[in-house]
Design goal:
Bound molecules: flavin-adenine dinucleotide
Distance between the termini: 23 Å
Order of helices and strands: HHHHHHEEEEEEEEHHEEHHHH
Helix content: 40-55%
Structural class: alpha+beta
Number of strands: 10
Mean pLDDT: 94
Largest sheet: 4 strands, mixed
Number of domains: 3
Length: 374
């Protein structure tokens, strides 16, 4: 198997890294403190073509291979998963729209998404649960040429920033998953309100709740048919491989920081990396990061070869995010007190790693998905 990146992919990677280093890294301390996402960067990412890599050319995208999409996720994850999250949040919604909205809806919204001007947030989870989607309580009731939506969503990213929520509702709770339906709800719809919440990490991903009180949307805002959410969601399995790539980037950043520190920090007259307890830990970290990386790019390459690699993508996401817990913890142990300073690179990734374990499915649910495919 040949996993070498093409020249075009290398050039793309250089552009992404240059942008992240010069324009994004310096803004992170402030964003962490205020919890505000640096919105102006979205337009820049749009101009540089980063947001279009996931979408078809007819809607302004560049339809890059999944491997390229993972390269972007890995590099943004290395800086802060909050930067993978915004585009990838848009990706999940944008892909749903590209797959199943009417042509008119695609042409109306997708160019804005690709330019970084339109933000759409995926609103699935509810206060009563996120794993058991068949049990969601938000309802969509047809009324003439509209749907009336009632319910509450929680753990939703960018609630204040998003122009639209792609809301998962049921047209008939007794049908469980067969009743699940997606609707695009503009934030200025009467009855739509939001309230922020603060997670332990991912501080500037703008998480919060959305309240939908008799929100009326035109029937054209239905994304896919009534009860057809699962049919669309099946094709969105590639979302997990991008989360895996971001987890690899985050863990790799911590591993490299710990490696550097182990060469500089002196104890008992020698660099701590000379102590076998520390060097063994670094070896384990390096192996784990590399294993997760190749599992991820292997899954991505299967999508690029036309396979619906749900099992491999879920394996990659599960392994990479659990690996992220171990590697960020090991890095913190190596930096000890300096790794425990609030806002330091290790501390930030340590917190964020514990969050992205749950996004796009919990480990328990992922193990169920994989076991069905064995
Ligand atoms: C960082 C982060 C980002 C998120 N992003 C989004 C987003 O963009 N959009 C969105 O809609 N939601 C998002 N969520 C919500 C996320 O999807 C849910 O947290 C997740 O689905 C789990 O739901 P829950 O927290 O309500 O836990 P529950 O579903 O109540 O689960 C509680 C526990 O029970 C376990 N469990 C449940 N069912 C089973 C089973 N059958 N077998 C074994 N164990 C089981 C779970 O694994 C978990 O350990 C995000 C959450 C986090 C933390």
């Amino acid at each position: 198997m040949d996993f070498a990146f093409t020249e075009e992919q290398q050039m793309f990677r250089n552009t992404v890294r240059d942008f992240l280093e010069k324009e994004v890294l310096p803004l992170i301390p402030e964003a962490e403190k205020t919890g505000k996402y640096p919105v102006h960067l979205l337009r820049k990412m749009g101009e540089l073509g980063f947001l279009g890599i996931h979408y078809p050319k007819e809607y302004g995208g560049s339809e890059a291979p999944m491997v390229t999409q993972c390269m972007f996720a890995e590099d943004t994850g290395r800086v802060s998963i909050c930067f993978t999250d915004t585009p990838s949040t848009v990706v999940g919604c944008g892909k749903s729209i590209c797959l199943s909205a009417t042509e008119e809806v695609k042409r109306r919204y997708m160019p804005g998404v690709v330019r970084g001007e339109t933000q759409i947030t995926p609103a699935l989870a509810e206060p009563s649960g996120g794993s058991d989607l068949g049990g969601i309580k938000t309802t969509a009731v047809r009324d003439g040429d509209s749907y009336i939506i009632n319910g509450q969503k929680t753990f939703i990213p960018y609630v204040e920033l998003a122009d639209f929520a792609l809301v998962l509702a049921t047209i008939d709770p007794s049908k469980r998953t067969a009743g699940l339906t997606q609707l695009l709800v503009p934030k200025d719809t009467p009855g739509y309100s939001v309230s922020p919440l603060r997670f332990m990490g991912l501080h500037f991903s703008g998480y919060g709740s959305i309240f939908l009180d008799n929100c009326r949307v035109p029937k054209e805002n239905l994304i896919g048919g009534e009860g057809e959410y699962l049919a669309v969601a099946e094709f969105l399995g590639d979302e997990r491989v991008r989360v895996a790539a971001a987890a690899v980037g985050s863990a790799d950043a911590c591993y490299k920081e710990a490696l550097k520190y182990s060469k500089e920090r002196v104890a008992f007259g020698r660099p701590i990396g000379k102590f076998q307890a520390i060097s063994s830990r670094l070896v384990d970290m390096a192996i784990e990061v590399e294993t997760a990386r190749w599992l991820t790019y292997w899954a991505a390459s299967l999508w690029d070869r036309g396979q619906k690699a749900v099992k491999e993508s879920t394996m990659a996401k599960l392994y990479a995010t659990e690996m992220g817990l171990r590697v960020t913890e090991s890095a913190m142990r190596i930096l000890a007190g300096w790794g425990y300073i609030e806002g330091s690179l290790i501390e930030r990734h340590f917190r964020d790693a514990r969050g992205y374990l749950f996004g796009a499915g919990t480990p328990e649910i992922e193990r169920i998905v994989i076991s069905r495919e064995l």
